Each structure stands twice: as C-alpha cells, then as structure tokens.
Amino acid sequence: MPVEMDIRNSEPVAVWSALSVATAGLAHLEGTPPLPCQDAVGAVASSRPVLVVADGAGSSPASDLGARFLVAAMLRLADTLEAQLAWLLDGRVAPSPEALHQFAELLARHAQGSLVDRAAEQSRPARDLRCTLLLALVGRERLLWLKVGDGEIVLERAVPSDAQEGGEPGLLPHLSTLGERGKGEFANQTIFVDERLVFAQVQYGCEPMAALTGIALMSDGAAEKLVSLDGEQVSGQLSLWLDDLRQGRLRQRDLVRCFYSEGFCRGTGGDDRSIALLARGLDEVGTP
Predict the structure, then answer these.
(1) pTM for the complete prediction?
(2) Predicted local distance difference test score (pLDDT) of residue 13
(3) What Cα–Cα distance (Å) separates residue 8 from each residue in 11, 87, 209?
C-alpha cells in the first residue's frame, strides 16, 4: 500500500481507506407508512481521517434530518479545526487531560448547538431532530473519540502471533470496544444530542495509534449482530471487512447485502443499520 509524504516535515503519512453505508431496517421498510432510514454516516480518508455515525431517535419525527445534518456539521467542524487537531493528535507530546476535556466539550457543544439551530430553522423543537453521535478523529500519534448515546466504536489492532511450524511470527487482528454501552437510566433508554444534553453524559477519550489497523463505528442496529451486549465480544466479520477494505475489495453493496441477509436479520428488531469503516495496511503499523 502506498505511503504519502508530508512535505512540511518529510515524515511518512499512512494512507487510510474509508467506506460507510446506512440502510433502512426491515421494521422501517415494512411499516405503515414506511419510514426513511434514520441513520446517517460519514467517512473521510484524507490527510485527517474522520468517521461519524448518527442514529436518529425513533420517536422523533424528523430525526432522519437531524442525523444527516449532524454528520455534515461534524465533518465540517473537523475540517475547520485542522490546526487544533494537528496539535492534539499529531505531536509526540500527548495533550493534557484538561486540553482534551476542553476540546471534547467544544465538539459536544458544537453538535448540540448545530442541532438546536437547525431545529429553529425548521420551526421545530430540538427534540424532533435528536439523535445519537459517534465520532472518531485520527492523527499520527493519537485517535480522539467521542460518544453520545448507544452504538459502538470498535478498534482493530495488530497483535503478534506465535510462529507456526517452521514459519515466522506474524500479526493477528484484535478487536475491542471503546466506551460504555451508552444506555440511559432505564434499559430501553439512551442519550441523545438535543437541547437537554449535558457534558457529563458525553463519553470521550484518546487512544494511541501504535498497532492500530482499523476503526469501525456502527449504530446499535448494526452492533446488534456484531458486538455482544456487554461489549466484550466482537464479531470477526469486522476484521474481514476491514481487510477487504484495505485491499480495495469492499464495496457499499457488500455491506448492504450482508445487512439484509437472512442470517443478519434473524432474531433482530429490524432497526436501521449503519457502519463507517477506516482501514490501513499492516505494513504501515508500528508495534505496540
């Protein structure tokens, strides 16, 4: 896989591949009347890779609009704040916890304010547009993630494997989740970006980029089949998709076909399913 050079300091910059898709769940398609997909996704694999997933609240009449708007707003903000992101995520020296807290609060306030303003433009209460939010911002040294509500953020890292008979030691993918499960006070509740959101409800953090080979953000409809309820087990299907993505073999239609397959739909609530993926080659990954 090719490696780009940053002219400013002549350091190699990893080339990421990105793909995202949002599909309407069967419960929405078969409803009376049918409902639109209330999930929205965004994936950028440029010099500043970004993933965003928003899942509109089923009880909010314009949450599909809110989800699409929020994804666009966060992608635009990431582009606007490139200088700050470079300082936070690209330098050898990690930012202080206070600096990280301030930037995460800025992201959350922008998400909330953008949605409230959009609702006002539509002459609607913000509750009509409310949605969850997953965000991943990728740097050379660190990954910044933010989570409001449910859904899952999954990291894939390359970990050393034992050598087979007569062979050389290799690398194997290891999948893990970030954040808590994102539920509210009761089992069927979650937290949303709306006018009532407070920063104490926002989850965020920084992760080192060493050995990181892939990132997946997904709504709870997709996570239902890919991540266990406690977040301890993640389906190996994600590593297969990430490997196909880095090899240039994965297409949106492959994900759509899987989401509508009988095996994926069996035993689920038929919710919308969305996923955003980033992958880079194993030859570009530093050791832990």
Answers:
(1) 0.91
(2) 59
(3) 8, 14, 21
